[in-house]
User: What shape does this take?
Amino acid sequence: MTNATTQLDRMPAPVWNSPEPPAVPLRPLRIGPLEIGFPAVQAALSGYSDGAMRTVARRLGAPYTLAEVLIDRFILELKNRRKTQHYLQIADEEHPVGGQLMGSNPADFGPAAQKLVAAGFDVIDINFGCPVKSAVGGCRGGYHLGQPDLALEIVDRVRLAVPSQIPVTLKMRRGIDDTAESRDRFFTILDGAFERGVAAITVHARTVGQKYVGPSNWEFLRQVKSHVGQRTILGSGDLFTAQACLDMLRRTGVDGVSVARGAIGNPWIFQQIRDLIEGKSPTVPDVAEQRRVLQMHCELSVQATNPSAASSTMRAFGLKFARLHPNPEEVRNAFAAAHCLNDWNAVIERWY
Ligand SMILES: Cc1cc2nc3c(=O)[nH]c(=O)nc-3n(C[C@H](O)[C@H](O)[C@H](O)COP(=O)(O)O)c2cc1C
Assistant: This one.
């Protein structure tokens, strides 16, 4: 590993919309009975945070990770087939790990949550944030932010269905849009969920309407944290660098940060945050370290699925890891042209 900030400097700057507030001291993160400690976790990322990505993140310093969102009907119908069994597979070294549920019918949530508990997930997270058309149009994910009664019925059903020692958590956006009604509904769900025993809430400070475009409103996160007092809030949005993660913790007072796009292709971000907390400049992986981790990720992916599925996953990850390579464009193009694992390994041999 080499100390350099040049690669981090290429990432977008964090967004902060108000004058600098006084820095809030960092605290160990707790999710209900679980002592997570280090307050930067690996977010749920559909298409990415499978067992392989989660294991890599844990090995490189993430104290807690979340699996990609699963639709409740899909979980209920999931058979123990080779093609799909990896969705519910958890390696021993992954714990604590959260499973995330999304759905439309409140009655499906309880049984689906129980299936996640039986699979070994340590936390059950409910998704009230997904903005994609098929989710919102299908009355799932972010749709529920407009329906506080339904959302809280879902919370009740999940909390009642899973054993009391298993924390139930929520993922929310800051609302459907920026209207006053949307803000009121957000706080109705937030307060109602904590009253019903939810252990922590992750707030992505973009609206559903924003999808992934435009700034995440960190000022909103500061308001949410000061509203809930001692209750646990994790912040999300615009955490592309270790410095941004530390800034969000210190400026908004949230109890933890949920690192999403900033961790795809940079699993070292968790170590980099630790470095910054210790007053060191963040270590940046040299090419040999990048090769080691890419190959480790690939092996884990093949073990969990099969060479064909692993090759498309690792192609997607390769495109992201390429950003840290001294020749990012060439390496990106080489990964883009890799159509099987042999091609992918040839990129590693040529460039790493
Ligand atoms: C490709 C992709 C997949 C995502 N999948 C999920 C998911 O399955 N569950 C979830 O709660 N959030 C999901 N998110 C949202 C992220 O967890 C996070 O809240 C969002 O990306 C904002 O953080 P960022 O701006 O730092 O990336 C996803 C985001 C992206 C970009």
Notes: The chain has two domains: 2-284, 287-351. Residues 43-47, 68-69, 100, 127, 129, 171, 204, 212, 216, 236-239, 260-262 surround flavin mononucleotide (CB under 6 Å). Confidence is low (pLDDT under 50) at residues 1-15. The longest helix spans residues 287-304.
